[in-house]
Design goal:
Layout: E1 11-14, H1 20-29, E2 34-37, H2 45-49, E3 53-54, H3 58-64, E4 67-70, H4 75-83, E5 97-100, H5 106-118, E6 122-125, E7 128-129, H6 131-137, E8 140-145, H7 148-161, E9 162-169, H8 173-201, H9 206-213, H10 221-232, H11 241-258, H12 263-278
Parallel strand pairs: 1-2, 1-4, 2-3, 4-5, 5-6, 8-9
Antiparallel strand pairs: 7-8
Bound molecules: NADP nicotinamide-adenine-dinucleotide phosphate (NAP).
Length: about 290
């Protein structure tokens, strides 16, 4: 039986990338006993130094946990940690809760939900927004799909890593909203890059556009963060372009399945694709600006 919600619950965390590491550190700070696994074991060092236990496999993490949490890159990565030999699903405890915060397809979320039900575990798709700084400050926003009772049971844990959590419907609903959210962010940054290309091409400093934009209805928090990076041409990955490209693909796949045309998203994905194809290193999605700076 899962202990009452709170720091006495044992947590398992799989995926210690840009997001998973700070989320794990916040769980330790909140007093949760934490067991972790990452494909590249060296990425677990900071968490182990802060008190986490390092498991030998995803299965061992799941077997140790009242609540299992995963946050890995994409659908193939998630399928691998769940279904490969010594995958997490084979170790999942009856009565436990499994929360996935990776951004994947709603169809995969529903498939995982069915696999959890077969094992007597409850599942929430709970992708996040807020970026690496949100993960570090414990100010993530969770978009959650699943049943209301499981959502309620997970709230204290989500509160250790986030500032808001929304229950949006059955399994898959969190992923649907997340994909729509990332479409908007991708289009906003792509639009800013395109407008900067126009302004600078016409002989006016990009800073002038940003200055006016900040006093207009075009102002948006994402542009506060990304505009200085576009102006300086600094693209160290915070939300990597390869992941934004993946999310636009997932949104377009969903749109195809349900017959909703997304012409602006399709065009933006072409732009992100061109930059991704030419990139030699891991870049932030602000690097969409490079499309105009070849
Ligand atoms: N970064 C952001 O600002 C942000 C914001 C919101 C949502 N997200 C979403 O959160 C998820 C994680 O993002 P991130 O920024 O933390 O990505 P990341 O830094 O690239 O980390 C990806 C994680 O997935 C693991 N992984 C990749 N392929 C794997 C495989 N085949 N088997 C096992 N593990 C595998 C990586 O392991 P290794 O260390 O071994 O490579 C790493 O732990 C993504 O779905 C992303 O879209 C990210």
């Amino acid at each position: 039986m899962t202990p009452a919600p709170g720091p006495q619950q044992k947590i398992g965390l799989i995926g210690l990338g840009l997001m998973g590491r700070p989320m794990g550190l916040n769980l330790l700070k909140a007093g949760y006993p934490l067991t972790v696994w990452n494909r590249t074991a060296s990425r677990a060092e900071a968490l182990v130094a802060a008190g986490a236990k390092l498991a030998k496999s995803p299965r061992e993490v799941a077997a140790s946990a009242d609540v299992l949490l995963t946050i890995v890159s994409d659908p193939p990565a998630l399928e691998e940690v769940l279904w490969s030999k010594d995958g997490a699903l084979s170790g999942l405890r009856r009565g436990s809760i499994y929360i996935d915060s990776s951004t994947v397809s709603p169809a995969l979320a529903r498939k995982i939900s069915a696999a959890c039900a077969e094992r007597g575990a409850r599942f929430l798709d709970a992708p996040v927004t807020g970026g690496t700084w949100g993960a570090e400050k414990g100010e993530l926003v969770f978009m959650v799909g699943g049943d209301a009772e499981t959502f309620k049971a997970a709230e204290p844990l989500l509160g250790a890593m986030g500032k808001r959590w929304f229950h949006l419907g059955p399994n898959g609903a969190g992923q649907i909203i997340k994909l729509a959210m990332n479409m908007i962010l991708a289009l906003e940054v792509d639009a800013l890059a395109e407008a900067l290309a126009l302004v600078t091409g016409a002989g006016i400093q990009g800073e002038k556009l940003v200055e006016v934009m900040q006093s207009s209805m075009a102002r948006a928090p994402v542009l506060d963060v990304k505009a200085p990076l576009l102006l300086k041409g600094e693209y160290a990955p915070s939300f990597p372009l390869r992941l934004m490209h993946k999310d636009l693909g997932l949104a377009l796949d969903l749109a195809n399945q349900i017959g909703v045309p997304l012409p602006a998203t399709a065009a933006a994905r072409e732009t992100y694709s061109a930059v991704k194809g030419a990139a030699k290193e891991d870049l932030d999605y602000a690097a969409v600006m490079k499309f105009w700076k070849k």
